[in-house]
Structures are given as C-alpha cells and as structure tokens.
Amino acid sequence: MSETEPQAESTARSSETTTGETDERIREEWSDYSFEGEAKLAVEDLDVHYGDDHALKGVSMDIPEESVTALIGPSGCGKSTYLRCLNRMNDRIKAASIDGSVQLDGEEIYQDGVDLVELRKEVGMVFQAPNPFPKSIRDNITYGPRKHGDLDTGLLARLTGRDDSDDADALVQRALEQAAIWDEVEDRLDDNAMGLSGGQQQRLCIARCLAVDPDVILMDEPASALDPVATSKIEDLIEELAEDYTVVVVTHNMQQAARISDQTAVFLTGGELVEYDDTEKIFENPESQRVEDYVTGKFG
Amino acid sequence: MAGATDSSVVRGDTSTYETVAAVTVGLAAVLFFLGLAATVELVSITGTLAGLPTLTTLGLLLVCMGLAVAGFGLVSYRGIFPTDPRASAGLVAAGLFAGLWGLIGALVFTETLGLGLLGGLGGGLGLGAVAFFATALPREDVGSTLPAGALAAFFGLVFLLGIVGPEWSWSPANFPDSQSVTFFARSVAPFAVMASSLVVGWAAAKAYGGFGARGRHLGAYLLVYLNAVAIIAILVALVAFVVFKGFGPVTEGIEVGLGVGPTTTIGLLGFSVDVVWPVFWPFLMNGASLFTDITGVFPAIVGTAWLVVGAVVLAVPLGVGAAIFLTEYAEQGRFTNVVEVATNALWSTPSIVFGLFGAAFLVPRFAPQKSLIAGMITLGFMLLPLVVITAREAMIAVPDEYRDASAALGVSRWQTIRSVVLPAAMPGVVTGVILGVGRIAGETAPLLLTMGGGSFVEAGRRAKVLGNFQLSLSPPFVTNPELTQATTALPYQLWQVVLTGTGQTAGVDDVTAFGWGTALVLLGVVLAFYAVGIATRQYFRSKLTYE
Amino acid sequence: MIAVTREGYRAALDDLRTGVRGLGDDALAQLDDGLTALATGDDDLAEDVIDGDAGINDRYLDLEGDCVDLLALQQPVASDLRFVAASFKILTDLERVGDLATNLGRYALATERPADEVDVQAIGADARDQVAAALDAYEAGDAEACRAVAAGDDELDAHCQRASERVVRDLLEGEAGADSWAVERVLDDVSRLLLTIRDLERVGDHGVNVAARTLYMLDNDPELLY
Prior knowledge:
- The complex is a heterotrimer of chains A (300), B (547) and C (226).
- In chain A, a hairpin with a 3-residue loop joins strand 9 (263-268) and strand 10.
- Chain A is built from twelve helices and ten strands.
- Helices cover 36% and strands 22% of the residues of chain A.
- The longest helix of chain A is centred in the middle third of the chain and has 14 residues, at 165-178.
- In chain A, strands 6-7-8-3-9-10 form a six-stranded mixed β-sheet, with helices on both faces.
- Chain A is globular and about 70 Å long.
- Chain A has 300 residues and is α/β, with parallel strands linked by helices.
- Chain B has 547 residues and is mostly helical.
- Chain B has three domains: 16-89 and 138-171 and 183-244; 253-285, no CATH class; 297-544, MetI-like fold (Orthogonal Bundle), CATH 1.10.3720.10.
- In chain B, 65% of the residues lie in helices and 5% in strands.
- In chain B, the strands form five sheets. A two-stranded antiparallel ribbon of chain B has the order 1-2.
- In chain B, strand 6 (263-268) and strand 7 (271-276) form a beta hairpin.
- In chain B, helix 9 (298-329) packs across helix 16 (490-500) and helix 12 (372-397) packs across helix 14.
- The two termini of chain B are 55 Å apart.
- In chain C, 85% of the residues lie in helices and 0% in strands.
- Chains in contact: A-B, A-C.
C-alpha cells in the first residue's frame, strides 16, 4: 500500500470558463437528479415575469418529501420568487405572470378550480421577518384553524356548550412543542405575542404554520433577521421538522444550507437554476464551474 | 468678568456675561407675557403696574433691555467675552429688522414730522434700508444686537418720555375712502411691547449661546418655546375664562341630600322602580317652565347627546366600510384618487352648506317640521368624511406583513380584514371619531336649519327617544315620534340666548350668565365624549400591545 | 441555560471519534496477529493479516470522507476544528500501522524458523502498547498520557537500536565458512529481522504521532510535534 496520503478526489471538472453550452450539458445531465422516495412537489419549466423583468427562467426541479431542500444563490436570482410560486403567493402581486407547471402530489396547482385556501393549508409559509399577529400567543396559533372553521371557540359555541376549547388547547400545546418553544411560553399563552424576542416570534410563526397541519413548509430566509443563537435553534428545528414535513428553505447563507439541507439547488443571477444535487455534492464537488465559483466566494 | 476659557469640547462654568444674558432672556419672556396680557386688558395700559404708571414701567424695562442687548453685542465685538459669530446675521434677520424699522420710520416721518404720505414713504424706506444694512453687513454679534436693542430702547424711551402716554391716540389723516380710524395707546402699546420683547429675547438668547451655531439654536428655541407657551396659555385662558364665567350660573341652586332631586322611573320587564336622585342640580336638570326658579338646559343636553350618538351611529359604519373598500378592495388608481379628493373637500365644506342640504332633502322626508333625526343625519354626514379619512390612514398603516401571514395561512381576504386589519386599525379610527365628535357637537349652523326649535322647553318635553320606539304596519315599520320632533341642542340654545335675546321671555333673568353657563355645559359634554373616546381607544390599544 | 443545539453535528463528531478508535483497534489487532504469526510461524494467520489490510484501507477512506464532510458541511471551529484536523492526521498514522502489521505478516510467511535471537516479541509488545496508550489518550482526551507516550518512545528506540546491533554482531561472529546456501539463508534471515525491528520502531513512532496530534488537539500545544 502506498505510504502517501490518499489523493483528494479530483473530478473531471469542466475546465472551460463558464459557458452556456457547458451548463446546458450539465443541466441535461442532472435534470433527472434522482433521489429515493416520492417527489412531493414537481416543478416543470416555471417561468415568471414581473412586467418586463424575466425573474425566473424555465426552472424544473422536483422536491423530495420529508427532507430539507435548500435554495441558495446571490440576491435577486429568483429563489424567493420560485418559493412563492409553490403556494401561489405570487398571485397577490399584480404585475406577476406565471407560466409552467407546479404539481403537488401529482395535482397541478395552477389550473382552474384550485382552492387557494386548501392549497395554502397544505403548503404553509414562514417569512423572513417574524410577523406574529398583534394578538395573544394562543390566538395566533388558533387563528388558522378558527378561520377555516375547524375550531369553534366563539361565544355562541361556548354558550351552547359545543365549543372546541379543549381541542384548541391541545392544538396550541402540540404546535408550540413541535416548534420547540412550548417550555418558554407555556405559562403566558394569553400574553400578547409582540412581547416575545425575535427568535421566539419566529418560532411562534412556525408553530402557527404547523397548527394548520401542512405537508410542506416553505421558509423564506427564516433566520436572517435573528442572532446566531436564535438561528441555531431554528436550524435544529428545521432538521427535526424534516422528519415529518417537506421543508424548502431559501437562504442567502451558504453555510446554513450546507448545515441543514439534504439537497441544494443553486440559482444564479437572472433567474436560472444552475445546479441541483445532494448537498455534499454541491459543497464538495459541484459540476458547474459557476457554482464552484459561487460557493467558494469568487463572486457573489 | 470671569470669562471662563472653554476648550472646544468642554464648556466652562457660566460666566457673568452669560448670567446677564440669561436674565435678559427671562425678562424678555416676562415682558412678552405682559404684553399678551395687556392685549386682553388683564394688564391695563391706562392703569398702574408695580407702583408706576404701566407705560412707565414697561418703558423702563424696555430701555434697560435695549441697553443690555446692545452691551452684549459690544462685549462680544470687542472680544471681551469669547464668542463665535458668523460673518453676518443673515438676510432673514435683516429683512425682519428692515420691516420693523421701516414701519417706525414711515410713521415717524408721516406724523411726528408732518411730512405727509410721500415723506412717510421715503422715511420708511430710508430707515428700513439703514436697518437692513446695519443687520446684514456687520458681524453677526453686532448685526443681531444693535438693531434689536435700538428698537427696544426706542419704544422704551417713547413710553418713558411720555411721547406715547396712556391717553395717547392717533387718527391718521389720509386714510382712504374718508374713513377715520383711531389708534389708542391701549391697543397699540401691547403690540409694540410684544414685538420688542421678542426681538430682544432672541438677541439675548443668541448672546447667551455665544453667537455661533449654539447661539442661533438658542435664539430659535426661545422663539419656538415662547410661541408654544403662548398658545397653551391662550388655550388655558379660554377654558378658564369659560369656567370662571359659567361656574356661577351652572352651580346655582345645587342641593345635596336624600329625596331632593327629581324622580326617575326605571321600568324593566313589568317591574318599575322609582329612584329619587339625592342631588338636585337645577341648571342641568331643569328645562324652562313657569314652575321652576332656575331655568336649566336639560333638554338641550339630551338633544346634544342624541345628536352625537345618532351621528356616530350613522357615520362610523358607513365610513369604516367605505375605508375598507378603498383600502383593501379597490385598485389604487384614478377612482381612489378622486374619492380621496372628494372626501377631503367634503371635510372642508362649511357647515352651513350641510345645513342647507339637510333642510332641502332631509327635513321634508321625515316630518313637516324640523326634526331631531334630520339633525342627526346631517351631523352624521359632516362626521363621515373624517371617519373615512382617518380609518383609511389607520388601515394603510397596518403593516402588509400581517396580511401576508394571514394569506399564507389560507385565510380569505374578508376574514383577514375582519380579524387582523380592523382590530389593528381601531385606535386610529377611534381617534378620528373623537376629533370629529369634538367638531360636530359644537356645530350650530346646521342645527338652525334642520333641527332647531323649542329651545325653551320644560324638562319634561325633552326628546325621549328610548322609550318611544313603535312598530307600525307600513314602512319603515319602526317609528319614533320623538325623533321627528324639533328639539334643542346646546350650541343652538346658546345661540338663541345670546343672539336672539329670547331668554327673558322664558324666565331667564341674566341672559349673559345663562349663556356662559350653557357654554360651560357644552364644554363639559364635549369633554365627556372625549373621555369616553379616549377610554375606548385605550382599550383597543391595550389589546394590540404587550404590557 | 444554553440549550444543547446542533445535535446532529455533535453526534457526527462522536461518530468520528468512535470511528478513529475503531480503526485503531483494528490496526492493533492486525499488529497482534502479525506478531503472533512471527512467533508461531502460523502461515494461515499470516495470510489473514495480509488480506485484512484491504478492510483497513477501506475504513480509512470512509473516515477521511467523513472528515471532509464535516469540514464542508458543518464548518467546525475552535476545538471542534482542531479535533477534526487532528483526527484526519491520526487516521493516516493508524493506516500506516496497519500497513506495517501487514509487513510483519509477510516476514512471517517468508521465514521458516521463528526469530528468537532477539526479543522481537518484547519490542513488538512495547510498540503495540505505545500505540494503544496513544489511542486511549485520544479517546479520553488525556493530555498527560500523551506526554507519557512520547517519553516512553526513547526507550523503545534504544531497545531497537540494541537489538539491531546484536543481530549484526551475531552475524559477524558466527557462521563463517559455511556453504553459500547457508550464507544466503542467514543473510535473508538477518535482513528480515532487521526490517522487522525497524518496522516495529516505526510502529512506535506512529504511536507517538498519534499522541502528538492528540496533545495539539487538546491543548493547542505543538510541543510533541517536533
């Protein structure tokens, strides 16, 4: 056996400088990036225009269930746009036009007759800046189920004795435990949510999202407004959630993507999806030179 | 002079110079308020102040301050005290002094020297130009102080030397259209005092601050502060005056004791209870009748209360609904802009126009005569634009993040508005209602045209709205004859008493006192509504924030 | 008050520690077998030792991959970073020990008679114990034990030196005038013996390396890393 250290694996990386043709070839090669398990969300040829601005160019990728998929890339590269297409939040922007196909469990969500309420119950979202309602913690958590009619805790229900207060309490506890914040707030559930710290507010928003029992959780830079300790707690939470939910996280922090995700998609400027693979591959040995340059920080 | 040397960062102790400047500033403030008091005759120009004739005292103070201010300028110019003046006092100050001195010059040249209109004009321009250059050309310390000190000293000397004494008056000869106007000392002197004290105070404050940036800051601060205090003083004086004048009439004849007051019957579900009030407050509880000693304003209070309630009931749902539509549903474009302009215009419309509208469209609808409900609706329309404006502002101020979060949970837009946006906007809406109620409770003109009648009625003939709802077989299926009666309200009552002089026929002996009493009661009622509004707003706010 | 976070990462670090220990134990087992084969002349055992090297190399590559993954995906810093960097190097030394054990197996196959002039077994036991002590120090995080290992290496080196000299002296003093075949055989035996002693000394040196890297990992002290 050789006495020298084993060589680090060197792959035949395209030595040409970034060219469209090379990336085309790469895209074809990994466009059937395969993984074990089912695809929870299947996106094909998604194009988004904000007026004249072509924000997303022909993106196709499948998102596996019960795992963490990270979307990384420089600012303005379309990753948040892509995320918001998955639960049709882009519909709220008047200037946005969306083409292409997004399938949730095999059902197309951009066809006529799709119930947005049901869609958003299945696909929940957590935003960058924590945005709890200015209500009590309990009311924040039960807001979704109450508005959907699943929980009735109104005055009339209480008077007729048919209210769901017990269910509501159980739901609140379950959601807060899942979001790893139950211990910190269990004795002040009726206090206003605005009194919590930033990290706690974000976990409350996650709990609020979990309370409607989604299958998919979309997170748009969930920890970017938080300090490192709070960020760490959110990251641990994401890893835990991935055991039961499909989590898609947009982050501009590459190291965070490396820490928490199972697979990573790299978007680069102009709304292109350049590479999508297992996280180890992206961070140890990416196929595309542009991705290599991005993750090593040669450009951002 | 213990001129403390200061490094550029650390200021030393206060020196004599600064102390004198501070005292001058204080004196100037005192003089300003003396002048203000003199305009309302609290200090009499023709009387005495501190032992001497008023004008003499004022003149003395003015001369002292003028000399002191000139002294500051000199001390600073000579470098006896270290200051940091700019190269010039600036065009604004120059223009101000030019105006003041130009006015003085014109008057002096016209009247005192008898040179006529042209002479006056020439003199005014000349003196004004001199003052302008005297302020703008020299260094800031000289330019700010000399013209100011000279102004104060001038007026001071004029008063001291008796050129303008307590009996002085002046009718300008060449007033247009052969009108004649007479200026009296008691009307002119206070303004002269106030103007002098303002400029002297400003110059002294600048001197205190060493004429640099700090000096200018202190000068401006003094003027702003005096202005704010003056406004508050006027406001307090107004309220105090009303209270002072009205307290006597209002509290006349109060008795406290068991069984003293009127009887109220409370009937509920077949049981009725007679409650005798332990207090008898005639002004508030009586109407006008032959059997009472003291005429009261009870029907007017009831009328005002019902008007406000009716207006709020009409305006708030409509206004909030319109605001919801404009903010949440309508596309921000030409339509919403037009509506915004129209709403603002409506809010600025004179109240008499609303009154005419009411008289033309509402009064004939409900009854052959003017009616309470016509008044309610008119006032409601007056309140409506303000509610729309403030509700809209309040809802726009609710952050979009709440709406996004709600949408991401799959909640429909209307539910979001109802459960998230409206509760968050409520404090703003309530503020608008409070402001609007303050305005409409005091409106008289619309009431003249739509509701006014029976201002001197007995207490028993007030509008008893609560007990009089009746069902009927024909539309609108619910009627209330009380609503269609003409009745009175406090501002209307006040107008009737003061202006039409009908009080005496209704058994009111001292009409003026009655008027003051009514004004005080109106003030009290409006403040009571404010208190309710503020409590409501506090309640909504507490639900939104963390305690 | 600070809750434990990044449990997956902590678990990965523990797995690495266990993995390195495991590789070390395997290498020591190979060494033991190699020494036994030398002592007993058991050719089957010697074959097993030679074949077992492939397994050690595979484990070694896996663990190196784990180190790279940890660095790329978890961005360890401070003591964690020193731990991963040290483990990286220690793995190399342990793999080398495995290779040297294989050499012992080869010598055992080639020799017909057991080598008993010098106490190869004693030297082998000392070297083996040195590596084991270093591994224990790594697993337990014991800085003093590291220093003790380094201290003991001088004696091992001296022992090996003496043993080599004895072998050469015996060669020079004995078996003169024998036939050329006998001379050949003696020369082969002697050179194999010398290589064995040298290899065992190297094993000890690798043990010291392990201890040195461990001390660096624990105290950031490069004292032993001449």
